[in-house]
Specification:
The protein is 38% helix and 17% strand. The protein is of the alpha/beta class and 359 residues long. The chain has two domains: 5-187 and 243-287, NAD(P)-binding Rossmann-like Domain (Rossmann fold, 3-Layer(aba) Sandwich); 209-239 and 289-357, UDP-galactose 4-epimerase, domain 1, CATH 3.90.25.10. Strands 3-2-1-4-5-6-11 form a seven-stranded parallel beta sheet, sandwiched between helices. The longest helix is centred in the first third of the chain and has 21 residues, at 103-123.
């Protein structure tokens, strides 16, 4: 691809695939890479179908390559062959519980892969970078809702890999004033594209709540286990800030646009509200709705919206979970012109539509 394009790592993943669609819808050419260690190759075909048939985006390009971010030579070859104007980096392992048993894998993938990517970008003078961080970097929050200036320092191996990446990105930005780096700390993405063509597609047993709920509703799993009902919350279950994955994807569009990266093709969708300011240098943004919803409340809402039965039981707390976690996302609204739009009912309905589309 000779025209300038955005590189999206982890493009076949849950958030990555939805972000690719939003970028294409807003006129960006996209190069996607993935190693498919926790995603499905069929998602690439779904993206192409959405792009060409459902959305009619024939004037923007999407190309995909099987590349692992741990392979520095493969990354270098990709940058040699294509004109890349910015990078949105999702690739990595992402399960808090799993990370306790596989810390070496998490550090190698999440930290080593990110460092490789930054080194190759530096070599090729590509200096616009959006990093997929996580609310886990806040550890156990002292105050709610959480602001970006809250203390950080995660206690799970997964969270620490994100936190360490943030640290070296901050160091890199201080040493390279011409770089634009946005670190997006998002909370709990759920839902699916309204077409039902892409959604959360975990390999094996889901680590996240919503796909487990939908699989129970579809009869693929016997019952849902809710980890803990003795937290100091109104109903005893954990409270999280659930955000629709399409809202989250649109936030990434807003972040890359705020850096001044220009689209290359026509657009089918209205762009996010123009940023109030040009975002230069290093920036941190929370991406959430600003509202906490308990695990039990999400399950009850799913039942009410879909009419499906969800057998569940309460089991022991899960190692690494914190009682309550929800965002103050006002900085993203002020500086990026971005705000979550979709409510919990829409998240549940879209997730169920996606589940029922699977054969």
């Amino acid at each position: 691809m000779k025209a300038p394009a955005l590189l999206v790592t982890g493009a076949a993943g849950f958030i990555g695939s939805h972000t690719v669609i939003e970028l294409l819808s807003h006129g960006f050419h996209v190069i996607g890479i993935d190693n498919f260690c926790n995603s499905n190759k069929g998602v690439i075909d779904k993206i192409l179908s959405l792009k060409n048939e459902f959305l009619g985006l024939t004037d923007v390009e999407f190309k995909h390559f099987s590349v692992d971010v741990r392979d520095k030579n493969a990354l270098d070859g990709l940058f040699e062959q294509h004109t890349i104007s910015g990078v949105i980096h999702f690739a990595g392992l992402k399960a808090v519980g799993e990370s306790f048993g596989r810390p070496l894998d998490y550090w190698e993938n999440n930290v080593g892969g990110t460092m490789n990517l930054i080194k190759v970008m530096e070599k090729h003078a590509v200096k616009n970078f959006v990093f997929s961080s996580s609310a886990t970097v806040y550890g156990i929050p002292q105050h709610l809702p959480i602001k970006e200036d809250a203390p950080t320092g995660a206690f799970s191996p997964y969270g620490r890999t994100k936190w360490v990446c943030e640290q070296f990105l901050e160091d890199h930005a201080k040493a390279n004033a011409d770089w634009n780096i946005s670190m997006l700390r998002y909370f709990n993405p759920v839902g699916a594209h309204e077409s039902g063509m892409i959604g959360e597609f975990p390999n094996g047993v889901p680590n996240n709540l919503m796909p487990f709920v939908t699989q129970v509703a579809a009869g693929l799993r016997y019952k849902l286990s809710i980890f803990g009902n003795d937290y100091e919350t109104p109903d005893g279950t954990c409270i999280r800030d659930f955000i629709h994955v399409v809202d989250l994807a649109q936030g990434h569009v807003a972040a890359i646009q705020a850096m001044g990266v220009q689209k290359q093709g026509p657009t089918k969708e209205a762009s996010p509200k123009p940023p109030q300011n040009s975002i230069q240098g290093l920036n941190v943004f929370n991406f959430g709705t600003g509202f906490g919803v308990s695990v039990k409340e999400l399950v009850e809402t799913f039942i009410a919206v879909t009419g499906q039965k969800i057998p569940f039981e309460f089991v022991a707390r899960r190692h690494g979970d914190v009682p309550s976690l929800y965002a103050d996302a006002s900085r993203a609204e002020e500086l990026l012109g971005w705000q979550a739009q979709r409510g919990l009912e829409t998240m549940c309905a879209d997730a169920w539509r996606w589940q029922t589309s699977l054969k």
